[in-house]
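From the thread on structure requests for the teaching lab: each student submitted one protein with a one-line request. Submission from student K.M.:

"Model Phage antirepressor KilAC domain-containing protein from Diplocloster agilis, tokens only."
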Amino acid sequence: MYDLIRINYDTDQPTVSARDLHAGLEIEKRFSAWFETNSTGFVEGEDFSKPYLKVRVQKEGNREVSREVEDYDLSVEMAKHICLMSRTEKGRQCRQYLIELEGAWNSPEQVMARALKFAQRSMDSLKERCKFLGGQVVEQQKVIADLQPKASYYDMILQCKDLIATTVISKDYGMSAKKFNAMLHDMGVQYKQGDTWVLYARYQGNGYLKTKTHNYADSKGIQHSCEHAYWTQKGRLFLYDFLRQEGVVPVIERGTV
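Reply posted by the TA:
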């Protein structure tokens, strides 16, 4: 009989299978009708679980077959009550067995064992959480490392308040000024007017470029003047964002995109 009434200890409180109790009490009445009668007055979700399907091996003639049957998990208190209401010797034996089980469940040793088991689950959960957070930190560090070159280049730009010659910027990209200017021309950023590079209309008026007049003397000592374009801090940032979209990045960022 005790083998028939297996106890489930996987929940906070031990439970009994209604099917196992039905078999242990040796009830001849059909299970569904028996349960409907004996569950009256009890509350689903508190005294017994919602119905669920499980596989049961049963004899049909000379062969054993597996069938899906409906079952419920009962609280020990509800199971004891059903045993008492059966008014049979089997019912008395089952009830006594459940009373002894309940006493063992509430013994100091079992209480301590459950506390240790709960503590172990908490520790395992904490370890998994730490592992997850550790993974998050690694990912964040990787992102920071990937972004560091960009931040460094931005910092370099922002630290410089002066006008910058194209020659200086082109070196950031590992190019000569001639190649850099030609690239910007091919990308539709600037064109040459005389000896000076100027921006196309769509980029003018944004404060990207400023010109400076330079005076110089020729071989005969005659004074001349010419204008050279210089990039502002705002223009340098514009170049960075524009070129990055085109897949061109400073040398400091090579290998991060």
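TA comment: The beta strands are 7-8, 15-17, 52-60, 63-71, 73-75, 190-193, 196-199, 209-217, 223-231. The chain has three domains: 7-106, 108-146, 160-253.
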